[in-house]
Amino acid sequence: MRALEPIYQPMLLAGAPADADRVIEVRNPFSGALVGTVPQAEPRQIRAAFKAAARFRPKLSRRERSDILLGTARAIASDQDRLAQLITAETGLCLRDSLHETRRACDVWSFAAHALIQNDGEIYPGDIGGNPHQRRIFSMRTPLAGVIAAITPFNHPLNLVSHKLAPAIATNNRVVLKPSEQTPLTALALGRILREQGLPEGMLSIVTGTPHDLGDCVFTDEDAELVTFTGSVRVGHQIAERAGYRRLVLELGGNDPFIVLADADVDRAAHLAVQGAVRHSGQRCTAVKRALVVEELADHFAERALHHMRQLSTGDPSDPSVDLGTVISEDAAQLIARRVAGAVAAGARLLLGGEPRGAFCPPTLLDHVSPACELVAEETFGPVLPIIRCNNDVDEIVMMANATKFGLSAAICSNRLDHVTRLIEGLAVGSVNVWEVPGYRTELTPFGGIKQSGLGHKEGILEAMRSFTQVKTYSLPWPV
Length: 480
Ligand SMILES: NC(=O)c1ccc[n+]([C@@H]2O[C@H](COP(=O)([O-])OP(=O)(O)OC[C@H]3O[C@@H](n4cnc5c(N)ncnc54)[C@H](O)[C@@H]3O)[C@@H](O)[C@H]2O)c1
Hints:
By secondary structure, this protein is of the alpha/beta class.
């Protein structure tokens, strides 16, 4: 496929294009080619973005918001090839994964449009207590008084940005978004679409820059009432320590187990595990990070997983037939390689893999992995499937799965209802999928982790619309 011409994208400050004295370069992780440049914002520009947002009071009717959201969904759908190419150029993800991402983002925007037409208030009778009143209490949801500060990671540059912006717009809020400096071009392309759909300028700023240059200003601005952050545990915890008295929504890393019990169809389980581990280059918070397989199936599982991994085609991520692109950078590929080597040194058997080439990390399969290795104790963000063998004992498997600081999602392969229900009850995670990859969800459903993976506030359109609003109650006389 022809390489895209390098582009310069200005930021959006209160909807208007804005430059800065310096730029950051975005390079294609596969080819090293320059994809484009964006401004390196200065802290004073971040302040200006929050100030402009705080001054603006959105007055869009539900119908107007719904039109903008549906228009955005349609624009993403009609431009999906170009957007997918941009995602692939910025991230090194294969085009197939990028197209998948554009379809998810369309869902986000259209589901938000549908969600906002539902009434979100409730009615409570006043005559229920020991001192009954002839009144009724009504609740309504209002936008936040302050501005939403949104910070997003590199790995889903369209979908996760959509998960911040769509519910914010649906609830008439104002947002200052700082996308990852590794993938800012897709976020800015989405910002342009929103402008074309008639989003009022004061509702959205998209500022770009490195955390090194911006410091804390995005999440400590005096006008930021809520910080919604998706990214690593390390950065999420730093933000939690420094953000002060404001609402926090943290969607952090994961270390998701893929549990295969003794009754499982081994080939089906192995195929799912490989998909869950390598799709999106293994760079999903909910990717399969550890396969916990009962000992009696493990040889067969490893053999079938090897078979499925060998089917994957690799190469230029912009080639539509390629299944696996690169990870985000050469440094990321090197870190994965070091952790794989560490696991092998600790006794794991490498069944498939090899040295990284630039940012390309080959699909990697290991068996007999010790749960103590860094490869599986930490979140390893790459196309790696480590098999940890375990005893055929559900309670022990629950303990192994939970023996991590993370608590995002999990997957189970079993048809034994008694075992499945014990696992669903026992796993300390936000979501469990039976006979699916851990990350399965719709864009509407609640999603988010516990323990170090998050504070328990959920995303997903409906939950995000709740966290981006306050509940106000009012009561009226209600004589009967
Ligand atoms: N739970 C979820 O929903 C979810 C979804 C996707 C990704 N993630 C997680 O995100 C991580 C991968 O993304 P990443 O590498 O971009 O994460 P990251 O934490 O390095 O960066 C995320 C964002 O924070 C910014 N940032 C980095 N350091 C900062 C600092 N000191 N102060 C303020 N902002 C800072 C980055 O510029 C980026 O915009 C993985 O851990 C993955 O599991 C979680």
